[in-house]
Amino acid sequence: MVGGRPAVTLSRTMSGEGDAQFLSAVILPGRGMNLYQLRAHLPGRAAVSLFEAPALQEAAKRMDGGPEDFMGNQSFRMGGAILVPYANRIRGKLLADGKTLETAILGKPVKLPANWKGRQPGAELHAMHGLILASRMEDVRTEADANHASVTGVLRAGDFGGHWLSKTELEITANLRSGAFDFSVTAKNAGGEPLPVGIGWHPYFVFPSGQREQARLRIPARQRALVNNYDDVFPTGKLVAVKSSPYDFSAPGGAPLGKLFLDDCFVDLERDAQGHAVAEVIDPAVRYGLRITALSPEVSAFQIYAPVDQSFVALEPQFNWADPYSSIWGKGVNTGMVTLQPGQSVSYSVKLELFRP
User: Fold this and answer.
1) How confident is the model at residue 16, as a pLDDT?
2) Where are the domains of the chain?
3) Can you tell me the distance from the alpha carbon of 133 to that of 235, in angstroms, rounded to the nearest whole number?
4) Smallest Cα–Cα separation from 346: which of 336, 331, 335?
């Protein structure tokens, strides 16, 4: 039990012996359908956990609603949290309670939980990674046949406890198949006024070899958003080209991480012939590759977090950029938020595939 709901494990029987293939997935309906763990068979190795996440017993202890878990913060520190109705940071005026900030969304005042800040003294509190991190799905159902297993959760989120505009209904489905793991998040405007929606995912992908410097990333982006510093990580509104810089991971096969720290939003995405943005995590030392395909055209950014002292990378496909309604972006800049009229829906979908580089 995590977040008051049983964890769900999807599993499949391994086929053959030589191919890399997914074996199981663990999802947490008590924590906004956090896609908590994915395990795979890699040739020459035992079953490998692909996400940075502690055992479920430890997750249950940390995701307890305590001070360190305000608004579900622990959910985006492990596994693969789903982020709705916004990904990344939103700034605003801190109110007297010290836990709430006020900002403007679609020209209307909105009060958001001030659930995050940098580590430096005096760091500014801000809203971070949406409003479903601690949500319990209301309806959960599983299905399975010879070829795949799936789980679906429904959340009638309304106005997210008074923190958002209009009313939102969510349906989240995860599928484990022989050749891929995929999931979708469908958000519907169930209210009577326009609904702003940003959706993201926050998975911590491990490097199975544990050798961070030789691990490679491929990020199909032409630009990245500059930030004020790597503690606040607030965007400045300025975009710079990545070509011929240490931040250029766009070539086929990507580029090694080396000693480069990353907490950057990559934008102006390149897309394949099907209109998909495709990123890759590659660990040459064990001939491991993971392809992350953002199937939704609304995905406009990859946020990448890669600390130099850890053997993982958080590679986050997102609809929206950081602080998307800030005036820093200038008039007419599309920062990725989708506005749904009453009755309209939008879907976020990502597919994972294993390959041998």
Assistant:
1) 73
2) 8-355
3) 23
4) 336
- How far is Cα 172 from Cα 305, in angstroms, rounded to an integer? 24
Helices (H), the chain: 56-62
Residue 295 DSSP code: -
- Kindly report, residue by residue over 309-355, the tens digit of the pLDDT: 999 999 999 999 999 999 999 888 999 999 999 999 999 999 999 99
pLDDT digits (tens, 9 = 90+) for 51-63: 999 999 999 999 9
pTM recorded for the entire structure? 0.95
Q: Does domain 8-355 have CATH number 3.20.20.140?
A: no
| 112-135 residues labelled b (16+ CB within 10 A) or e (exposed) | bbbbbebeeeeebbbbbbbbbbbb
Instruction: Provide the pLDDT confidence category of residue 17 given band limits of 50, 70 and 90.
Output: low
Which of 53, 325, 83, 79 is CA-nearest to residue 198? 83
C-alpha closest to that of 285 among 209, 213, 206: 209
Amino acid residing at 37? Q
